[in-house]
Amino acid sequence: MLRQFDDPSYDQSSAEKAIHQLKQLGEVYEPSTNTLRACRSDHIADFYSGGRSNMKQLIADLEVEYDEGAPVAEYYTVATETHGLPKPLATYELERLKQRGEVYEPSPDHLRTT
């Protein structure tokens, strides 16, 4: 269902046309569930073409440089500045790696890969 925004230039028929055009793109439309799978950000699309292994490798690379493990602050610095990820996405990926048991914290604010 379309939601009307406070924008005075909002035009429901324009929104419906845009949705129709998105449905024509098989990459973003799932006909069996009638849902769109469009990403909100180019960072997310680029990231998920191989990002999990990239973030795990980033932590592994940082581990080599630091005896106590990869500093969490350094992970965020490299993920956001070098890889161009928004911090919320870097946080999300770090939590996913922890949940999957691929990364753990041997001490506060430090990371190691498994």
List keywords for this structure.
114 residues; mainly alpha; Arc Repressor Mutant, subunit A; three-stranded antiparallel β-sheet; two-stranded antiparallel ribbon; 5 strands; 11% strand; disordered N terminus
Question: Can you describe what's shown?
Answer:
The chain is mainly alpha-helical. It folds into 2 domains: 27 residues, no CATH class; 70 residues, Arc Repressor Mutant, subunit A, CATH 1.10.10. 51% of the residues lie in helices and 11% in strands. It is built from 5 helices and 5 strands; from the N terminus they run H-E-E-H-H-E-H-H-E-E. The strands form 2 sheets. The chain has a 3-stranded antiparallel β-sheet. A two-stranded antiparallel sheet has the order 1-2. Strand 4 and strand 5 form a beta hairpin. Helix 3 packs across helix 4 and helix 3 packs across helix 5. The longest helix has 15 residues. It is elongated and about 60 Å long. The termini are far apart. The N terminus is likely disordered.
